[in-house]
Amino acid sequence: EGVGRTLADVLVTVTEYDGFLPARGETVRIEARGCAFNGRVLAMTYGQRLDVYNFDNQGYMPRLVGTPSYALRVALPGGPPVPVFAPKPGQYLLVDQTRDYMRSDLFVLSYPTYDLTQLDGKFEISGIPAGKVKVTAYAPALGKVVHQSVEVGAGVNAPLTFEIAFSESEYRERLRASAEPAPSVPATEPH
Length: 191
Hints:
- It is a single chain.
- By secondary structure, the protein is mainly β.
- It has one helix spanning 168-179; strands at 11-15, 27-33, 36-37, 41-45, 49-54, 62-64, 82-84, 90-96, 99-109, 114-116, 131-139, 144-152.
- The protein has a four-stranded antiparallel β-sheet with strand order 10-1-11-12, with no helix packed on it. A four-stranded mixed β-sheet has the order 3-2-5-7, with no helix packed on it. The protein has a four-stranded mixed β-sheet with strand order 4-9-8-6, with no helix packed on it.
- The protein starts with 10 loop residues before the first strand and ends in a 12-residue tail after the last helix.
């Protein structure tokens, strides 16, 4: 939470517009420094690749949890970026294989109309076709989603504000549930 109760790490997306918009470039730059990636929440368009740069004096081994990894990729200090690819749209976890605590939620979207809020809580999404669209704000840390329908005019900037309700008891319950081990499957009795 930032000054004035602004919220960082919120994924804001625009969908339900007419037409096709291409991805914003071929790559998304991610920086590893101080045993952390440069964002707790990251996003990209399907078809882009993540280029993980190392700005430390130690190596990093980035990978997406749940995807096949046929080679060990090491981002060396001062070396070239390590490319990371997502096999399909969805939510992933970008981790460093040697540091359990070094992780970021990665959203691989099928459209390029998104932005992530920083501590000031602001976002900007440009190039949206004119017409009625759906704008969604998702706070992964809170598990909260809010939507608004908006009429976008050609060449018009439309300020938009979202309010995401916070419940400390819901948040603590969410943390507790994520920390519990998965229930085990009971063993079957021999016949």
